Amino acid sequence: MTSYTWWPVLGAPMEDGLKRVLAHDFLRGLSDGTLPREAFGYFVIQDTLYLGEYARALALLAAKAPSGAAGTLAAHAGSAIATELGLHPALLEQAGLDPALLHTTPKSPATTAYTSYLLSVCAQRPFHEGLAAVLPCYWIYQQVGMALATSGSSDPVYERWIESYAAPDFARSVAEMLQVVDDTVRELSDRQATDMAEHVEIATRYEWMFWDAAVREERWPW
Ligand SMILES: Cc1ncc(CN)c(N)n1
Hints:
Heme Oxygenase, Chain A; 0% strand; binds 5-(aminomethyl)-2-methylpyrimidin-4-amine; mainly alpha; single chain; Aminopyrimidine aminohydrolase
């Protein structure tokens, strides 16, 4: 990471967030197999809802991107849906949960907040700010996948989830996005780089909140 131009500018808020994420009960439970199936199912369903909006956010960014990055972002908007979403129904089934829940569950408060934030930044703010908002989504999941893969999980369903984020295919797509971030940061003023760092910090907090909502099985008050 240290070889990237963006790392000194954007690395600190994500590293801090990553420590908190790795210490969270959700990921500890995924790793040692104690995570309740209900919390995992809640996460997978909410993640499906999240990924649909996330793909839209990437498509909005693709439309604003400089020509060198537009193709990468447009391709990612498609692959976010194809690869990650492809896994979710199978994970639910393997976990003994009903995949039909994918079609009947509404977005939770945390999912609503995170996806609304991503969509508004990508639609209404300059390209570099939107890019900063989606960066933790890539970087944190890759780091989580690699960290958890060192010991794996005794639970085969959780192990399958971990493997998907420790896989070379995911690493390749993260590397593509990190390169886009690098090319972007090189062209920015200090003020613009600070704006990026603020979005990285907010999105990193949302990543933590997303796992936290799953453990609490967060619901709307009515
Ligand atoms: C909430 C969330 N953040 C990130 C990722 C990884 N694309 C994800 N699947 N879900």
